[in-house]
């Protein structure tokens, strides 16, 4: 987890900021007159009274030592232009209105993608698979946009929690819970994860392989962290140009994860090839059946089914039977034997 430095005048403001970014950052707070000797980290928030010029020159010199690409967000009085001007002069890369709002702060730190993480369902103290999976997704996306390594242990633990919840409560309960998530991107990833794990159960997979499917479900769309939010969360169908941008996400995901120590070839394969079809009509590499593993074939079916049963603002979720009929119409693009085994899962959502 990345560290956020907070420079403050009052401990209360530092505590409030720390609370709002809990689970996303670890925090280290510094009074303006007690700046550390080392250089700033990649992320810093400054909430001080800029009318008090005491130690401002020291602060400016300290912030100048931040790493390349480091973000420094100053809290300023709403509508007071001179404060914003002064903040930039001291070293701000952006400003946010005071009192600091967590959603606005994350957006300044990470761009629009930060708004995906402001969700009441992402509670670090919750022990259910949906909540733990959502927190893992948040960390996956944060890693992708910040360039930090993905925490594989966190995903692995989340995968175990997902399998446990699916085993104890079943797919229907999982889907009904996931559909309350405000982000359609997170909703989709969690739906696919639950469907993939249930598919593994249907095929008689052992615990380790079901965890592998959960891990892949959480990780498979990591490339979407680098898709513009107006496309990623568009409240309507994508046009042709937007669809082409969206199609970049498997390769973006592969580029993000390539060379990461501890990540198996199977996992990279599912990330980059879950939109490939057996007849060579998929993307990004137009692979054919002989080049596609059984795990990739399973993830493709889970991904399509998850997309069809999603709750979207512009369309009601499709029933399991209707979604399965669409899968059947895809003919040679999908593995017919695996699709036949998938039928009982689709029936869970009939009606």
Question: What features would you highlight for this structure?
Answer:
Rossmann fold; Hypothetical protein af1432; 2 domains; five-stranded parallel sheet; 15 helices; 5 strands
Q: List the secondary-structure elements in sequence, H or E.
A: EHEEHEHEHHHHHHHHHHHH
Total separate domains:
2
CATH class assignment of the largest domain? Mainly Alpha
**Count of strand segments:** 5
Shape: elongated
Strand order of the largest sheet: 2-1-3-4-5
General description of the model:
The protein is α/β, with parallel strands linked by helices and 351 residues long. It has two domains: 3-111, Rossmann fold, CATH 3.40.50; 119-347, Hypothetical protein af1432 (Orthogonal Bundle). 51% of the residues lie in helices and 8% in strands. The chain is built from 15 helices and five strands. The chain has helices at 11-20, 56-63, 81-90, 102-110, 129-146, 152-178, 184-202, 207-219, 229-232, 240-246, 249-257, 265-273, 294-308, 320-329, 336-347, and strands spanning 3-8, 26-31, 43-47, 71-77, 94-98. Strands 2-1-3-4-5 form a five-stranded parallel β-sheet, with helices on both faces. α3 (81-90) links the parallel β4 (71-77) and β5. 41% of the residues are buried. The model has no long low-confidence stretch (mean pLDDT 90).
